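Hi R.,

Here's the chain you asked about this morning:
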Amino acid sequence: MRRYLLDSNAVNAFVNRRGSVADRVREARLRGDRIGTCEPVVAELFYGLEFSSSWEENIARLEHGLSRIRSWPFDRIAAREYGRIAAALKKCGRPMQVVDMMIAAIALSLGNCTVVSSDTDLTAVPGLTVENWEN
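And the predicted structure, written out as tokens:
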């Protein structure tokens, strides 16, 4: 069993049934894989909706979509991974947004977890597997 953590763009595509993400989620579930996201992604999505002209409709759609996948927390194990990632990236002079490092840390803390994202920054995180399902 693998775990797939959907990043913000992948969750948006899943919720709105755009592109191939919904199909890939269905295929992964049929194989017995676990599909989810994480609370930092959820926070990003709610932030983005604050600028929406159809806020109520979009919040309802997001809440419905989130109810169909799990959401992993940023816990102590992820916090430890975050510290390791942030230090490694700083040492090699590779800046990255805090939220992206938190997402990577959660995925690494879960073990056998692939981040589904179109954000190529995440590929700079040592040991993190990233796939783009939007192609």
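The helical segments are 8-15, 21-30, 39-49, 55-66, 76-91, 98-110.

Let me know if you need anything else.
M.
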